[in-house]
Amino acid sequence: xxxxxxxxxxxxxxxxxxxxxxxxxxxxxxxxxxxxxxxxxxxxxxxxxxxxxxxxxxxxxxxxxxxxxxxxxxxxxxxxxxxxxxxxxxxxxxxxxxxxxxxxxxxxxxxxxxxxxxxx
Length: 120
Description:
two-stranded antiparallel ribbon; 5 helices; mainly alpha
């Protein structure tokens, strides 16, 4: 945790230095710009969406006691789409995270194009 937190802070520091102080901007920086315009909306959506989708139950076999096991749509997506990509489950987990980030980005990108900004 300390290692990955350090990597995240270093990456963020490099990006802030390059974009804000050296003004190195381009198409690549607009990806981060879209996230920065509606961060509160993404935060709330990333907590709200899994909870709402968790109310939908998809049967996924039986456990050792013979009881049905259910998955949410996000769990089903991971099990059926992301996990089978590789024998290494870390690759499937990374793919799942990247797809969710892209999904949230598309939502706020559409909001940015329509000039919709959620502020407190």
